[in-house]
C-alpha cells in the first residue's frame, strides 16, 4: 500500500530530474553560443546615450543644439564659445600625458602642445601636427597636417594634396599598431626627406654640368661597400610611389661624387682621375654626409672645413665653391710652409706671408669659372 503511494512521487522526481537535465543542457549550449558570438555581441550592445545633452535638458530645461528646421538635424561639429576653452584645455592635458608615455626620438628638435595639438618638428626636414582620436580611439594618434621643410632656394618641397593625404593615412595606420608610434613617424618621414635631398643634389649637379660649369666638374653615382654589402637586407629607405603609398621594396639611395679641378689628361678615365672631389651620401644611420676627398681648412676659421648641407636650402653650387676656396687655402698654406723652410727665400717670419682676403661666393664664382 505504501509502494503504491510512492509511484506518483517517483514519476514526479523522474520528470523533475529530466527537466533539470534539460535545463543544464540548455545552459551549457547557451554559454557555448555566447562565447562563440561574443564579437557579434559588441555590435548588438546598447547604444551610447547622449548623457551630456540629457544633463543639459535636466538642468537648464532647454537644448541649445535643437535644430530650427529638419535640414539642420545632425550633430554640431563646432563647440560653443564658452565650451572651447575648457575642452581644448582638457585635450591638451590628454595629449601631454600621451607624449609622456611615448618614446620621443632624440632627433625631434621641437615638441610642443597648443590647444590640443602637438607640434612635432625635425629642423630642416619636416613638421607634423598631431592630436588624439584616430578613428574614434583617443589612445591613438591622428595626423592633422604634414609639412616638408626640405627644399632649395625657391622654397620647400610641396607634396600634392592627394599624396599628402595618402602618406598621412598610411603613417597613421602604422602608428596605430606600433609600440613606439613617434619613432615610426620619424623613420618614415626622415627617410622620405633623405630621398628628396639626394634627388635634389643629383638634379642640381646635372643642371650645373649642362650649364655654366660645363666641363669644369664631373659627377658619378656611387655606392660604397658598407651600404651595398648587405643587399639582401631589409634596411632600404622608404619611397613615395606614384599612387602616394610608401614603398621600401629594395630601393637604395645612391651617393654622388663630384670632381672639380679636373685633370685634362685623365678626363676620360674615372679610375685614374686624381682630381679632388666631394662625396654626398646617406650613411647607414640615414644621415646625409658631405665629405671632401682630402683634409681641407676653412680660410675663415683655420679649422677643418664643414661642408654640411643645409637641408632646408640645398645649394650644390655653394658647396662646390666652398670646397674650392678651402682647398685653395689649404694648398697655399702648404706652399707657405715650404717657402718658409727655404732659407734663401725666407730670412725672417715676415718674408713669406699669406694674405687673407674675404671673398664672397658670387665673386669667387666669377673668378673660378
UniProtKB/TrEMBL annotation:
In which compartments does the protein localize?
A: Nucleus
Q: What is this protein's record name?
A: Mediator of RNA polymerase II transcription subunit 14
InterPro entries recorded: Med14_N, Mediator_Med14
Per its record, what are the GO molecular function terms?
transcription coregulator activity
Output one GO BP term.
regulation of transcription by RNA polymerase II
Q: Which of UniProt's keywords are assigned here?
A: Activator, Nucleus, Transcription, Transcription regulation
Instruction: Record the organism.
Output: Triticum urartu
Keyword ATP-binding on entry: no
Q: What is annotated about its quaternary structure and interactions?
A: Component of the Mediator complex.
